[in-house]
Structures are given as structure tokens and as C-alpha cells.
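Course assignment 3, question 2. Fill in each field.
Student: A.L.
Task: Predict the tertiary structure for the chain below.
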Amino acid sequence: MLKPGDTIGILGGGQLARMMALAAAPLGLKCHIFAPEGDNPAFDVTAAHTIASYDDEAALKAFAGAVSVVTYEFENVPASTADILSAKVPVLPAPRALAITQDRFTEKSFIRDLGLAVPEFIAVASLAELEAALTRLGRPSVLKTRRLGYDGKGQAMVRDDVSAEIAWSTIGGAPSILEAFVPFEREVSVVAARSSTGEVLAYDVCENRHAHHILAQTILPAAISTQTEQAAKAAARKIAEALDYVGVFAVEFFVAGSGADEALSVNEIAPRVHNSGHWTLGGAVTSQFEQHIRAVAGWPLGSVQRLGRIEMENLIGDDVARWPELLAEPGLSLELYGKREVRAGRKMGHITRVIR
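Answer field:
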């Protein structure tokens, strides 16, 4: 168990690391950020940072010696990085969670083996294998690279008017999975945390709406039945326990049907604090960022009580220019990420409205 004054190492210097570091400070904990050269807004809010590549073994060993525990803000940390660090300092969540969630085929297989529903999927390593998979799953289907996909990147919808050749070219001919398309009514997610003692606490299920494959809005409560909410939380608990997970994570689901016919299928696991949990910053007794810090520090988890009806909106690209008018709205919470460059599709901040 860490004590106030100890230092948490965070791999990655983006907005998630920034918000974790800001959550650690009131608890008396320090953060040390490790990230390659680039726009690293987390550096602005921490006293210590290391600029080095994730394969710089000397820098990683020095970093490990300066912190009491290591966590991360994104799941694509190289396996070798986690191995080097875990030999010298605890890494939480454990590297096994990274290994499973970095590969979509491995992740989907893990979820299916737990007895949870997932869309039907087939591993694809060549154009010929894609054509065979399309014969089996039909169209529409979704072709996804096995690694390094997020916010719609590394994906191609294969409809009747899209040839296998075009789809394969779109994702760069990378090892992939073909996934059956789910005609869902809505997308929801569970953000939850598991402590080092095995306690699991889940926030209320949130409903997510996307624009151009990027999360645009999260609302709570989600328009789902009580039974579906309970099933989603139970699935998240099952995943966390199977991974022996410590920290905050998210599980994204498709919800098909409505009312008594609602059915859940797992879309993916995010082994980190998650965009759909940003509403907790101001919308819950304990934010997901403080909860993650508590978990990796070995401290008791905080209350996940929601403070009202919630609307969270991402500020993407030029949306950030609305900050003066947003600040003038009574009761609105604004979080800007301190990024230097505004680009189309780039998450620059978010707002949360809590309606009591």
C-alpha cells in the first residue's frame, strides 16, 4: 500500500494521464510521467517527467527506480516495456491485461471463453481468408485490424457494394478479424474498478453516441432495462476477476432489441480509464481518475454514486473554441486538456452537465 508522498509512474503523457495526475494530487500522491517526445499535456501538471521511447531500457529502469508503482493511460504499451518495468516495480493493471486486450482476436476469444456473448468473429490473415470469412458471416460485416485500432481507425465496413479487395486494402492488409455486424439499438459501457483486495465497484451504465467513429456524447441513465444494467455490471465483474485486474477499466457493449427482448454483446474491453467515464469528473462522488489512483495505490475504493442525470459531451477539434460560451452556462463543468494543436477529430476537452 502506498502512503501520501509516494510516487505513481504513468506511461503516456496525454489527457488521461493528466487527469489521473490531477486526481492524485489532493490525495497527497505524486506522479511521474514517462512518454516519448510530443504533445504531452500531462507534463504541465506534474513535477517529474521522463521523455524517452518505450523501448529505451536504461530510461525505463531509471523510471522504475523513481516510482512505487507503474500504471498507464493507454493499452498499446509495448509488451517489452511492461516486462522491463514489472521486473523492478509493480505494474498495475498487470501486463496480462495488456496482452489480452492489445489483440482483438485474443480479446474476443477471452470474452467468449468466459461465457459472455460477443459478435461472431473469424481471424483473417490474407485476402483469401477474408473472402472465405465473408462467405461464412455474410454482409454487412466489420473488418478490424487485430492491433492498434481506436476511434474507428483500423476498421472497414464490408457492405454489399464493398469488395473484399477494397476492404483488405483499406486496413492495409494487416492481420485482422472479420466480425459479424450487430444491428444494435444503442451502445453502452460499464466503467468499473477492482481493488487489490478484490472489491469491484461499477458506475451506472452509460449510453454512448458517436459521430465519425468518435465518442461525441455520453448520457446517464442509459435507456435500458434494470435487468440489462445488472447483466452488464455482472459481465464487467466477471472480466475483472478473470484478469485479476487492479484499477479502472471499461467494457463496451452493443444492446440489441428493446424491453424484454434486450440482449447484450461485448464489443471490447479498455484496460484503463475511459472516455465514456469522463462524466464521473463532477458527476459522481468519486471520479474514475481518483478511483484508479486509489486502486493502484492499494487504497479503499471510493463511492460510485451518481449525482444526477448526466450529459457529457466531447469537445472535438474546433469545438474547443466554444469555451467562453460554455463557461457562461450555469452548472456546467468544463475540462480542457491543454493540447497545443487543434486538429479535426482530436479530443480537446469535454463538458459535463449534471441535472439534479
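Instructor remarks: The first helix runs from residue 15 to 24. The chain has a mean pLDDT of 96.
Grade: pending
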